[in-house]
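Continuing the series of single-chain predictions for the mutant panel. This is the parent chain; the variants come on the following pages.
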Amino acid sequence: MPKFQKFLRLTFLGLYYISYFNRSSKKISYQQNTKSYTKFFKIGAIPFLSAFIKTQKSDLSSISKNKTDAEKKILQSIREAQEYILNGNLQEAKHILKDAIKIADDNESFENISYLCDLLSSIILSEGDFYEAESVLVKFTERLLQLGYSETHNTIVTFKLKLARIYQLLGSLEMAEYGFRDCIRVQENKLQELKQLDEESNGIYLTALFWYGKLLADQKDFNKARQKYKCCWKRILKSTTVVPAQKMVVLHSIANVSASLNDFDEALDYLNAALEICISEDPNNKDLPILVVQVGLILIQKQVYESALLWCQAGHELATFEGNEMAKKEGEKCLKELTKLKIIPS
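Parent structure:
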């Protein structure tokens, strides 16, 4: 990080600790250990897919001597596909995974079939070919059910969750909503029965809650969206595998819907929690300027103009030097509003 850019971040830290948030405000609980990443937000995002692979790779590091030749070929294919994905060669990874699935079918070797299907569908989703991804996921879901997987198996629920997300992106909102609600229902039933969820089940549950909240927020049903986002946050607090950037996304989402409901104090509380996570756990996160500017915009709504000016200027400067165009535009919008209000001389 360039020295001047680092200076700006340090300057912001000073601003952060002496400004508006030194008021005695409600603190959002966020402290959590972050060990590794499983499946949260993996849908359609290859960086998250790569992170997931890093946590799984060791599970495939040894081939037992009693494996059949087909199983050995499949495991080798998975290794090769993982390497291609991590190196950004998705097309080659896709070809290898398709060949491995064919080997599994031809030899009735289904030990790793769900993992193969999950990887392949994630690659297709990351490429943005939603119709092909839909076709593949439907086919794989039917195949796994034929192999004896139950409707409530985590792999089946994951595939249905991916399908719901695809329908959301394609604008088939009724199908998307049905899918999200069904996934949430299945995981809630597991929670009621088992009293607690393992990491994988919890990750699927909180992901479904987040994307359903996003669907509701896009439809401007902000009260229900906030409810789902907050449920998602509660599940995150029970997880040890959600990384700081993902925590920040959820907290920022709660802040946005709270602001849309004119609940500005709550919005600031959740932004405060997101900023604390960014500063303490992920200080180089590129989204810091967005959070800073967002505080400024909300402070304008609260008519706390002097603090708003500090936050908007800091966010705009950070965005400019880090090349964050989205945050820069929001910062300009913030400063323009303050100029209109004559807080900044025109």
